[in-house]
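User: I'll paste a sequence; please echo it back and then give the predicted structure.

Assistant: Echoing your sequence first, then the prediction.
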Amino acid sequence: MVTNTSLTSHPPTQRWWTCLTKEDWKAFFAAWIGVLLDGYDFVLIAFALPLITKSFNLTLVESATLISAAFVSRWLGGLILGAAGDKWGRKPAMVLSILMFAFGSIACAFAPGYWFLFLFRLIIGFAMAGEYSASAAYVIESWPVHMRNKASGFLLSGYAFGVLLAAQVDKYLVSWVESWHPGWGWRALFLTGIIPVFVAVYMRRRLPEANDWKENQKDAQRDDDMLDILFGSQRRIPNILAVVVAFVALMVIFTQATSSTAVLILCGIAAAAVFITFIVQFDPSRWVIGILIMITIFASFMYTWPIQGLLPTYLHGIGMDPGVVANVVSFAAVGNACGYILAGFAGDAMGMRRWYAISIILSQIIVIPLFVQTSGIVVLVAALLFFQQMFGQGVSGLLPKWVSSYFPVEKRAAGLGFCYNVGALGGAVGPVLGASIAAKTSLGVALAIMSVGFALIVVVSIGLNLPKVLQKAVNPDAVRPEDGDDETIAAIAAGDEHPADSAPNATDTASPAPKTQGR
């Protein structure tokens, strides 16, 4: 049951923005720009792909693998760069991630062939995962506790604006460059990836470290980060081999190296086994939470990414011409961005889990008329898509806050980065599964089925706080009262050591709330 979480550790008449200092805003906007550029760099390949395919004479399968490549490396980037954020600070990890995806983007501009592009896309995926976990942890730990749903939702809106920016740059820059140097339009698009370098330099010089991380360093042990746990002991060699196994398995799956269903299933099982093994080693007493988070994020990507990836195809199928399709997709992206911001306000007002459940249910009510209708009425479809993306995709802006609530400060960036980016593999699987279902019905019906089915999993998991519930069933002593619970987090920040809805014995060995959280 979703409890009411009124997070009011500040005077109810106080304007929310007055609770933030100049340093809070500086931290937010720097991280927001990083996420915007992260989204911008990540989707450039989608706009450049037609010209790349023509330049290198690629097959449809080879072209598709350039998009999937980033998913192959995301989980590893979340693990390594997330652990770096726990060990050396959120800011250094954020700066390093930005420099890495800037390098990957610039390198794509000079790629002489397919495999170089594939390699550079691996780097971009690796860096994107690290930037996501570091920036999310940075902003959430820098803002006051009662405003961290806003911090999470506002931050992720940067990704949506990055996608919109990429669309506009592609629209004007590529055609201009192609007019005087044919074949270089897509390369010029990737060269714009140099911009994040300047953002990284600013961050390095001007930003303070996250409050919670600094406070936690006074008492934290320096040998319990994810890198030390997995690769700093006698398990180093087996775990390095496990990384290789998972990486190869994902390469086989996402490069479509084989058409054998049995081989693909075995590769999927091998990769899943590695991920589960790592989360068990990372936190032996709380591995249930880690696995449930990965499953929930996977389901979240499975209900959102088929719509995002196959939406243009669906719109073409109901009779819209390419110009109209581009405008409708852009309008839907604005709805997505508005949804991130709405999620921040609603999450703080109603509680993170309560709003998440309500928002997804609203989005699924819209999904049925959206994808079952075949009228092609532009205004109707655009309006339905705007609100579907607002409630369905925009609410994912709360995911960083939700995931981070299950990990203490010293393990937060790695836990968030690894679990989220393993789950993000659903973004690569979803469109393929959606297309397969569409082959037996229609694309609209396939998108509706996947959206409703996987959204139900997310509603149940987040709404009922299944990670905490199942963890309590397996090992109640390892449960922290703040796991997935806004109300308890606020009570701890306010100084209540034993919130009413928490068992006193379920906490005291877990991580104490950082002292700065009471701001």
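The CA atoms of residues 152 and 399 lie 8 Å apart. DSSP finds 21 helices and no strands in the chain.
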